[in-house]
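Student: Hello, beginner here. Can you help me understand the protein record under this note? Any guidance would be welcome.
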Amino acid sequence: MFEYPVLLLFPAVLAYAAVMDVFTMTIPNRISLGLIAGFPLAALLAGFPMHTALMHLAAFAIILAFGIGLFALNLLGGGDAKLLATAALWIGFDQLLPFVTTVTVAGGALAVLFLAGRRIPVGSLPLPEWAARLHKDGNGIPYGLAICAGGLLVYPKTELFRALIS
C-alpha cells in the first residue's frame, strides 16, 4: 500500500526539478535532499539488504564526485551535479551506465536544440520572460531536463522499481 507513493516519488521529484530548471535555471537543494531522504524508505519497502542499499550509496558517491569534477571545470551546474548524483542513488549500479548514457544523449540533443533556437532573433518570437532568458547566449542549458529524461526512461528497469511493484 505504501509502495506506490514511494514508487512515484522519484519520477515526480525529477519532473519537478526539470520544470524548476526550465523556469529558473536553478535546481534547489531541497529537491536533491528530498530524494536522499526518500531513498531509505524506498530501500526498506523494497526489502533491500544492507549490501544493496550501500551499493546504491556508492553509485551516488561516484556520480557526485564525477559531477563535482564537471562543475569545477564549468561544464555542469552545481544543482545539475547534485540532481545527477541523487538520481544515481535511486538508479543504482544495475542501470547506472544506461542512465548516464541516456542523460548524455538527451543533454546533447537538448544542446543542439538550444543552439539552433538561439540562432532565431529574439524579437521575432513572442516569448515569455523565462523563455527569453533561456534564449540568450551564454545563459546555459537547463540540463535538469536531460537528467529527468534519463531517469524516467531508466527507472522502470531498475532493481528498486521492480522490487517496489512486486
